[in-house]
Amino acid sequence: MSNRVVNQRPNGQAQAKICQFKLVLLGESAVGKSSLVLRFVKGQFHEFQESTIGAAFLTQTVCLDDTTVKFEIWDTAGQERYHSLAPMYYRNAQAAIVVYDITKQDTFGRAKTWVKELQRQASPDIVIALAGNKTDLANKRSVEYEEAQQYAEENALLFMETSAKSAMNVNDIFLAIAKRLPKNNGNASSGTNRQSHRLGETEGSSRMPTGCCK
């Protein structure tokens, strides 16, 4: 399958520059991190998604008006036994999506812990987005939108509720991150060794360049 591109550039406009950014997904197991990535990268949803082991690496491109943003995406495992590996993936990341399940209050609490860890240990300029996933199960909601929105505002986070199943806001949250990232950033390095490719790689992800705009 060829790589899908989220295109925000008018037809016929020449590409100005390409920027690469490392993005990591964090959150409790089974909140839908892998499903969000699979929906964004391949436009697919699997009802029964296997748990990620270690981390999976994928790439996807977002086209803005004058910039093509290439995300190098690390989808991390949510099981507690893999927590110690997380700094290896969010180190030098320019962006992070912290995911929780709107039907499980404890995953929201865990998301807050991840945000604190990123604020304390990740790059001070990292763009953090909070994603309340599984809005297709809104009838089972236990985390109110307003509660999460207030928390996001207090911590300067991007915030959207999403559904990997229905595709609600999946492209939008990545696009919002792309718009917030500094396009003159020359430090889009990705020194982490790939640990897993359980979702498969998209076209062009066989190497990991360290430059940003070129």
Task: Give an overview in words.
The chain is of the alpha/beta class and 214 residues long. 25% of the residues lie in helices and 24% in strands. It has 5 helices and 7 strands, in the order E-E-H-E-E-H-E-H-E-H-E-H. Mean pLDDT is 81; it is low at 186-214.
Shape: globular
> Helix amount, in percent?
10-25%
Question: What's the total number of strands?
Answer: 7
Q: Which runs of at least 5 residues are low in confidence (pLDDT < 50)?
A: 186-214
Secondary structure tally, helices:
5
The value of Rg in angstroms is: 16 Å
Q: What topology, given as strand order, has the largest sheet?
A: 1-3-4-2-5-6-7
Distance between the termini: 26 Å
Q: What composes the largest sheet?
A: 7 strands, mixed
- Overall mean pLDDT stands at 81
Secondary-structure element sequence? EEHEEHEHEHEH
* Structural class by helix and strand composition: alpha/beta
* Oligomeric state of shown chains: single chain
Q: Assess the beta-strand content as a share of residues.
A: 15-25%
